[in-house]
Amino acid sequence: MTPTAGANGPLFTGTTDGGGDTEGTLRAAQAVLAAEHAAVYGYGTLGGRLEGGRRGDATAAWDAHRARRDALVRTVRDLGGEPVAAVAAYDLPFAVRDPATAMRLAAVLEDGVAAVYSDLVRAARGPLRLDAAGALREAAVRAARWRGTGVAFPGLTEKAAPPDGTAEAGATGVTH
Predict the structure, then answer these.
(1) Across 123-135, average pLDDT
(2) Can you tell me the distance from the alpha carbon of 115 to that of 1, in angstroms, rounded to the nearest whole number?
């Protein structure tokens, strides 16, 4: 997801290039922490546009992202870093005006979180890698539930989406 310009922080800051070393793992963990801050904000924004079971789904996702965020603060400190702070507000990629756009934003949030968790899976080792893989899976499942369909390689589609019109384009789960 491309961050938008403005006085607020970008919803997602991008990916890292960690490779298993402590510094790369710390960069990846900081990126995930920033994405979790953004997800908590995003779910707070979209939750008011949903009703019934979907509002319950959003609340459960919000709680899950808050728990992951809090655990990541400890992880970053354990890796020797100062945890990145949340910003007061984030620029959303589009206006959330109704249940359909709220569900669309939820899928975007989960895709963004999955992308940075894939970087942490690559950078980390041991229990942190296992935890990051679990978080990636959870984000991918939530994204599929919000979108109504999954993608072949969660967390990787926006990094290596094939060009339109190729045989691979239809296999990514990206709608063209």
Answers:
(1) 97
(2) 9
